[in-house]
Every structure is written in C-alpha cells, then in structure tokens.
Amino acid sequence: ADDAARTGAAERNAQLTKPPGALGRLEDLAGWYAAWVGDARPRITQPQVLVFAGNHGVAAQGVSAFPPEVTVQMVANFKAGGAAINQLSDLAGATLGVHALDLDTPTADFTQGPAMTEDEVCAAFALGWTAVDPQADLVVTGEMGIGNTTSAAAIAAALLGGDGWAGRGTGVDDAGLARKQAAITAGLAANPGRSGLAVLAGLGGRELAAMAGAIAGARAHRIPVILDGFICSAAALCLHAEDAAALDHCVAGHLSAEGAHARLLEALGKTPLLSLGLRLGEGSGAALAIQILKSALVCHSGMATFEEAGVAAG
Amino acid sequence: ADDAARTGAAERNAQLTKPPGALGRLEDLAGWYAAWVGDARPRITQPQVLVFAGNHGVAAQGVSAFPPEVTVQMVANFKAGGAAINQLSDLAGATLGVHALDLDTPTADFTQGPAMTEDEVCAAFALGWTAVDPQADLVVTGEMGIGNTTSAAAIAAALLGGDGWAGRGTGVDDAGLARKQAAITAGLAANPGRSGLAVLAGLGGRELAAMAGAIAGARAHRIPVILDGFICSAAALCLHAEDAAALDHCVAGHLSAEGAHARLLEALGKTPLLSLGLRLGEGSGAALAIQILKSALVCHSGMATFEEAGVAAG
Fold first, then answer.
1. How far is A238 from A204, CA to CA, in rounded Å?
2. Contact at 8 Å (CB) between B98 and B51?
3. A70 contacts B278? CB cut-off 8 A
4. Do A309 and B284 count as a contact with CB atoms less than 8 A apart?
5. Based on the number of CB atoms within 10 Å of its own CB, is B189 exposed (0-12), middle (13-18) or buried (19 or more)?
6. What is the pLDDT of residues B214-249, one digit of tens each?
7. Is B66 exposed, middle or buried (0-12, 13-18, 19+ CB in 10 A)?
8. A69 touches chain B (CB under 8 A)
9. Residue B67 in contact with partner chain A when CB distance is under 8 A
10. In whole angstroms, what separates CA B187 from the centre of its chain?
11. Cα dihedral sign for B7, B13, B14, B15?
C-alpha cells in the first residue's frame, strides 16, 4: 500500500464538512482504498465481479439439497442475466465475468484422496488470476458449485482445526448434514497436508482455486477486493495460511447466514461490512457491499472542505 | 398495506432461482415494500431524500461541540452540493430536498418551557408533510440542527423513561455532556406533558416536527420510508407514541454510533439494515440504505424463475 496516498487521504478526511469520525467506517474504508490504489482522492468507476463455477466429486456423498446439474444450469442463468448476481452487478455498475471450470469433469471425491492434482489446482488458480481485468478498480470474487460448502468447511477444519464447520449450505436436511460432516471427517483423513496450497488442492475445488487466484492476481495489480461469504472466505483462508498479509487488500463484504462464517472471518481478522442474512454465494453479498465502498469514496472525494464551504470547524 | 401484493410477492419470491431464504433480509424487504406500494413486482426509481434544518434555543446551554451558526452554514453547503448527503443522494439516484425552518428564530429554550407553541409545531409538521413528493416511491428523512441530539435525547427520556439517553452528539466533551444531561433533566421538569405530540412540541425542534410530518405524509401516500439515526428515530417515536402502527411503513436504515440509538430502535421494534458507526445525521445512514432496498427489489423483480431459467428447484 502507498503511504503517501494514505497520508493524503487522512489529511483530506480531517478537512471535510462533518464532525471528526462522523462517517464511521466509511472513513476507514476510504483511507484503506486510497492507500491500495495510490490516490488520495479516488473513486470507483470500474468494479469487476467474477463468478467461478465448478463441480465437486464429493457431491456424490449426498451433501447438498440440490443435484449437481444445478451448477451448469445456474451458469446458463448467469449468462442469460437471470440470477441475483446479474441484478446486483448491474445496480452496482459492475461488469460481470462468468467462468465455468471443466463442469463436465468434477473434482475427485476428496473423501478418497486429493480433489485436484497439482496441475489441476494450478490451472484453476491461473484462470482466476488472469480473469482479473488490470483496468478494474475493485474486484468481487464469487462462486457457484453444488457441494462447495462441504469443500469450504473441510478447508476451514483443516487449516483452523475444531469442529462445527459444516452448515446447512443451500438448505440440506439433518441426514444430509450428517453425511456432510462425515465427508469432511473422511476428507481430512484422506488429505493429510496442512499448508494452504495443499489444503486448497486436496479439499478445495476449481472455483475455490480460481477465487484464490483472482484475489492474488488483484493484489499484483494493487486492486482492492471485496470478499463474499463462507466459500470465498475459505478460498481466501488458503492464501492467508501461506502469508498472513496476503489479504490486506481485501475487505469482508458481508457476514453470511452459513453458521461458521463468523468464526472464519474472525480467523482472517476481517469485520464484515454487511450482515443481512444472505447465504446465496455468487458474489451476492460482496456485490451489495460495492455500494458501501462506493459511498465511502463519493463522500471522501466529493465532499467540500470546511474552508471551501465556509463552515466553522467547531 | 396491500395483502394481494404481499401474497403475490411471496409467490414470486418462492419461484426465483435461489435456494429458499438465501437472500435473507432482502427477501423480507421486498415483500414489505411490495405490500406498501401495492405492486407484487416493484422497483424503486424515484427515491426522495428530505433534509430539514432547525435551530434550538437549548443550544445556548452549551450542549454542542459546534456553534449554532453551523446550522445555516451547513444548509448552504447542502444547497451547494458539498455535504455528505449530496454525494450519497446522487449515488443512490435520489432527489434531495433541503428545507431550512426559520433558522433566524431558534425554538425557545426547553429548559424554561415548551420549545414550540402549538402553531409553531403544526406549521413545521405541515411543512414536512407537504415536502413529500406524491410521485416518490421511497422517502428518506434527515436533519441538521446544532443542539438537536439534546432535543432527541429529551424526547426519548420523556416518552420511554430511564436515564442515559444523552450521548456525545457531534463530539461534545465531558463538561458539555454534563450540561446536556442537566438541560434534559430541566427540560423534562419544564415540560410535563407526555403524549407524543406534547413531547414533540415541548422538547422537539422544527426539523424534528418536520420529519414527523414527512413520515406521516409519506404514509398517507403509501410511500415507504427509511428512517435515519438517533434524531430521526426520536421524531418517529413521537408518532409511535400516538399510534404503535404509525411506523409500519418505515424501516430503520442504520444503527448510529450515538450511544442510545440501539435502545431507541428497540423501543420502535426496528432492526437496522446497516451498522457502520455513522453519527452524522443529514439522512446519511438512511441514504446509504436506499441502495440496500433497491438491491432487494432488483433481485425480487429482475431475477428469473426456476421455470424461466430451466433450473432444477431442488
């Protein structure tokens, strides 16, 4: 991050026509964003939403309320403009990129061994990295993939330890939840590596690897990122496990209704911007949060100073 | 509210391409809004932000970190486009109406007797009522008035009882906070009436009366309202004290950093949409929340159904 831009933004913030601190977290967001893009008075004009889709071998264990063919059906819905993320991206003035990763070839069932080979995880990571538009001034990473809350919960369990990472996902019943928990336990045993990248390959999925790649790629371009919910956070956790500073260019867009998301965000050291009970994925919560970040910057960069407005500074 | 529109919206919601309930509070908001506007598939295209400004006799008690002349200076800033609310209204696609109420004639000091006569409070209420554009499809009510957190805290204390309603406002120091608390105690003694409208006249201010009038006027037109922070909520409380259903067409836009706002919202039975530490007033938190409500409606009204998209419904 750029210290000169950070300092310049703080100086500007102190002169704006409001009591000190009265815009609360919006002020913090503006300073953080300014530092990452290296501009003390920036605006967001080209946000990019990236949705990655993948299929999961572990879905065969009956861990989801929906059948695996819904992944490809929802990709068609994204491309036709009918999903929530289409509406939210349009409203936020963002471009939407949809990337389906080898949907006809699900990952291997991680209860039996690694979900992906090294070549497969690297290819998915690289696809995510290169999906980032270098001209974008904000990136949102989202996903679609029947079975992927099981993958995300397994990643969290592997890297953070403890129980209770499995949740209801899209709405699985008690029996399904028990199968999900059993699959995670089996997956942890079948994939003993505990580095971030080993866990991503062993327990992740192509869309999770692509999100991790996009987050890392955005960092290379100094583009701030808004993280979405539980699955996106699990993908981000794999980077965080390799380097605790790897997510400094990211904010958490929202707290998902998926039960374990709060614990996962706490492990990442992130406080969510929104908490509206969403548990859809697709990047939907992060896309909502684009408007919060835009709001922070229109205030920071558009407001008059006390001197410009002839207002007494108290 | 319109039961047919509510039912129609619920039927539509159940068919949209997402797991049931996955959009969380956005789904509730869409159903509530649909019922109030009488349209099962509505969108927000004409939001109106109303900012009312008033001066307070109680400011002479030294209750604010800013001098009273800041009220008129900030009104000029609103009209010139330099304040936070200008930026936030523009970003949300809202029109902004700014109404300064007799700034040269502050209300009477409520520590000595009623802040406003019956004629004065009625005139301010009527101004707020008629400021609502009947063509608007959403109204936000905000305010500016040095001294008005003292007025709002006094209203809350009078109608809800208990202590601790006084907070730091724009940033008053410990001595100022003690003066603020003393002024509230004196105001409660000098204004013994405890009906909502008696409290509004006795302890309120012109901008608070105008906000109450705008909230009531919007109801007459069946226009949903987003409430702003502590001061707006205190104005709304005066209506709520007269009729517990008077705010059914309102949602709470945000939880302010002003300490007692959470208690006040609890008394109103409202859960805030956002909690970002704002304590600016001007309608700023509610204007941010316009985008959340718009997001709820673009999803509700723009998404494809399972049948339209050819997606399996689980």
1. 9
2. yes
3. no
4. no
5. exposed
6. 999 999 999 999 999 999 999 999 999 999 999 999
7. buried
8. yes
9. yes
10. 23
11. positive
Whether B314 shows a pLDDT value over 70: the answer reads no
Q: B-chain residues within 8 Å CB-CB of A22? A: 170-171, 278-280
Q: pTM value?
A: 0.97
Cα–Cα distance measured from residue B1 to residue B8, given in angstroms and rounded to the nearest whole number? 13
CB contact under 8 A, B273 and A275: no
Contact across the interface for B304 and A80, Cβ inside 8 Å: yes
Return the bridge partners of A48, or none. Answer: A95, A139
Of the candidates A26, A66, A311, the beta carbon closest to that of B312 is on: A66
Structure tokens, B241 = 């004290």
Encoded amino acid at B48, one letter: Q
User: Which residue matches tokens 């003694």?
Assistant: B189
Residue of A237, A227, A288, A242 lying closest to A263 (CA atoms): A237
**What region, left, alpha or beta, does residue A312 occupy, with left being phi > 0 and alpha being psi -120 to 50 degrees?**
beta
Distance CA A5, CA B244 (A): 50
β-strand partners of B254:
B274
Measure the CA–CA gap between A120 and A224, rounded to whole angstroms.
27
Catalytic residue among A27, A207, A258, A282: A282
Q: How far apart are CA A84 and CA A98, in angstroms?
A: 13
Query: Which of A167-181, A253-267, B115-129, B225-239 shows the lowest mean pLDDT across its residues?
Result: A167-181
Determine the angle formed by the axes of helices A230-242 and A261-268, rounding to 10 degrees. Answer: 30
Block residue for tokens 């992060």: A286
The span from the CA of A44 to the CA of A138, in Å, is 7
